[in-house]
Write a structure and sequence with these properties.
The complex is a heterotrimer of chains A (272), B (117) and C (149). Chain A has 272 residues and is of the alpha+beta class. Chain A is 33% helix and 15% strand. In chain A, 46% of the residues are buried. In chain B, helix 1 packs across helix 3 and helix 3 packs antiparallel against helix 4. Classes of the chains: A alpha+beta (272), B mainly alpha (117), C mainly alpha (149). The complex binds protoporphyrin IX containing FE, iron/sulfur cluster and FE2/S2 (inorganic) cluster (FES). Protoporphyrin IX containing FE sits at the interface of chains C and B.
């Protein structure tokens, strides 16, 4: 996009549950500059054109997962998408599909969070007291970290759920986000919860409702590749179904420190 | 892990189908390309010729088992993806199990009856 | 007074199986697989009727059925079923392999610009697609070399 100021037409979907029966589209002309993101444009609209426009944003740097939207027929993070990269004089912005609309562009991600919680998204320990009260440090080799690292970058933005064809018709489907995270924990060498977790993910609305459409992985703004995670999860499920629960390799535990070195005192001039 | 086992059976039946439907395709639908010598595989003579051989009867019945299980289980999956109610899903499960058994019994009886006629 | 307002459902529904946005080919192979699967089971039911109820009534009824089916509509239908079978079988083979976690590679650190396993292995998908097209051609060829489909 050239440096000089140009303008782009924004078609934004509006819906106020207290007033509207149907969502409607509203047009705004937004002056754009180099490097401007969709989120910048929405902020411009809210500040200068229509203060009633509702959307969710927080970090404006692709970290918090608040600003997922359906932009020019593709789910994206508004803060992570420059207007110029769309190469289009008209930009349509709609709320993410497959999550209920609260108002305008803000969708309710609670159903996704609930599904996320249902798959036990934490390291499950054989020893339950250890789970809440760690007594040791667990060591992982770099290869062991690589098994799950990619999947741990998920910011719970709901974009994969918007892309998934099964989530489109099946509200109860656990969805790429939760299933991807189920694998993230099953693949962690510190975890002992696979046996339990894999029975949750084989429910009627679980991993076998995924048919490798791959749209989740394509759209994920963090490169998490939930589609790959789900297929690897199915591999674990198949192994458990055929050969019983598979244990993760025992992780190394750091030896108890023999002597505790005294803490270096805080220099007096900083502790004021 | 019942549902995973059933899904694996669904895949296994697909592989079975690929093998037997492959044979079926080669003999009955690629007869000219493969020059099997049978120019009219749908004629009564050709058909009855196969129907009275035990090998073919076995293939037909296996094809029936695999096809019914694979097809109905696949359809069940599609229906689950459009249904919220667990009750409705259970009903579909029952209808498919009963329906599948009835269709199997009827359709397995015919080739056996033909072969032994 | 404050009133409780319920969020408005926004699922794409079954329409979302067919179109959900500007995604790449794999998302649309999904619906192709589904449509061919349902088409095949409908055909299988029809075919079972033909080979049980009709066949059981003996030679004259069978030959009559065959004559009834020997018209362009059913012949085109049979070619479509053949296409559906070829597509479903080979794409199904790819799905069995990849859905069980094979031929997809290992996880990779997400370094920008991101890639994903299905797209990195696009070549494998394309090989399956190529075989599908070849088999479709062979299937149609059979019709023209001989006579009967
Ligand atoms: C010839 C070999 C065949 C193979 C290798 C095969 C393979 C597959 C596979 C792997 C799936 C699962 C797709 C997924 O989970 O995404 C599937 C689904 C399905 N198949 Fe087959 N299949 C074959 C033949 C058939 C036949 C003959 C029928 C009809 C009787 C059929 C009907 C279906 C149906 C209804 C589905 C469900 C589609 C869906 O869930 O989207 N298949 N097939
Ligand atoms: S997997 Fe990707 S698209 Fe899905 S919620 Fe996590 S970050 Fe968002
Ligand atoms: S505002 Fe935080 S991800 Fe966009």
């Amino acid at each position: 996009m050239p440096d000089k100021e140009t303008s782009v037409t924004f078609k934004v979907q509006r819906f106020d549950p207290e007033k509207d029966k149907q969502p409607r589209m509203q047009e705004f002309i937004v002056p754009t500059r180099r490097g401007m993101t969709i989120l910048d444009a929405l902020l411009y609209i809210k500040e200068n054109l229509d203060g009633t426009l509702a959307f969710r944003t927080s970090c404006r740097m692709g970290i918090c997962g608040s600003c997922g939207m359906y932009i020019n027929n593709y789910p994206r993070l508004a803060c992570h998408t420059q207007i110029a990269e769309l190469e289009s004089a008209v930009v349509t912005v709609k709320p993410l599909p497959n999550s209920p609309i609260i108002k305008d562009l803000a969708v309710d991600l609670q159903p996704m969070f609930d599904k996320h919680k249902s798959i036990k998204p934490y390291i499950v320990q054989e020893n339950k007291t250890e789970e809440s009260n760690l007594t040791h440090e667990y060591v992982q080799k770099p290869e062991e970290v690589e098994e799950y690292e990619q999947f741990s970058y998920c910011i719970k933005c709901g974009i994969c759920v918007a892309a998934c064809p099964t989530s489109a018709s099946d509200a109860k489907f656990l969805g790429p986000q939760a299933l991807g995270q189920a694998y993230r924990y099953c693949a962690d060498s510190r975890d002992a919860g696979s046996a339990e977790r894999l029975t949750i993910t084989e429910s009627n609305h679980g991993a076998w409702r995924c048919h490798l459409a791959g749209a989740c992985s394509e759209a994920c703004p963090k490169g998490v590749d939930p589609g790959l995670a789900i297929q690897l999860l199915k591999n674990k499920m198949a192994k458990q179904a055929l050969a019983g629960p598979q244990k993760n390799k025992k992780v190394a535990i750091y030896p108890e420190p023999k002597e505790i070195k005294p803490r270096v005192a805080v220099p007096p001039f900083t502790a004021k | 892990m019942l549902k995973t086992r059933m899904q694996l059976l669904f895949y296994l039946s697909a592989i079975g189908l690929a093998v037997f439907l492959g044979i079926h395709m080669a003999v009955q639908h690629l007869n000219n390309v493969l020059a099997t010598g049978d120019t009219a595989p749908t004629s009564w003579l050709s058909m009855i010729g196969r129907a009275t051989q035990n090998g073919w009867v076995v293939i037909y019945i296996l094809m029936l088992v695999f096809g019914l299980y694979h097809g109905l289980y696949g359809l069940r999956g599609i229906i689950i993806e459009m249904t919220k109610s667990d009750k409705a899903i259970n009903l579909v499960n029952r209808i498919f199990i009963v329906g599948g058994i009835i269709i199997f019994a009827w359709a397995a009886y015919i080739p056996i009856a033909l072969a032994t006629r | 007074m404050q009133t409780e307002v319920k969020p408005r459902p926004n699922q794409l529904g079954i329409v979302g199986w067919f179109w959900g946005g500007n995604y790449k080919i794999e998302r649309y192979l999904y619906i192709l697989h589904r449509v061919t699967g349902v088409g095949l089971i409908l055909f299988a039911m029809f075919h079972l009727f033909e080979t049980t109820v009709m066949r059981n009534q003996g030679e004259s009824v069978w030959e009559m059925t065959m004559r009834f089916l020997a018209n362009p509509i059913f012949e085109i239908g049979l070619i479509l079923v053949g296409f559906a079978f070829v597509i479903h079988m080979l794409n199904g083979a790819r799905l069995i392999i990849q859905e069980l976690g094979y031929l997809l590679g290992r996880p990779k650190r997400p370094v920008y610009p991101y890639s994903d396993a299905i797209r990195r292995k696009r070549g494998i998908t394309m090989i399956f697609m190529a075989v599908i097209i070849v088999l479709m051609v062979v299937f149609v060829l059979n019709r023209f070399i001989g006579g009967a489909v």
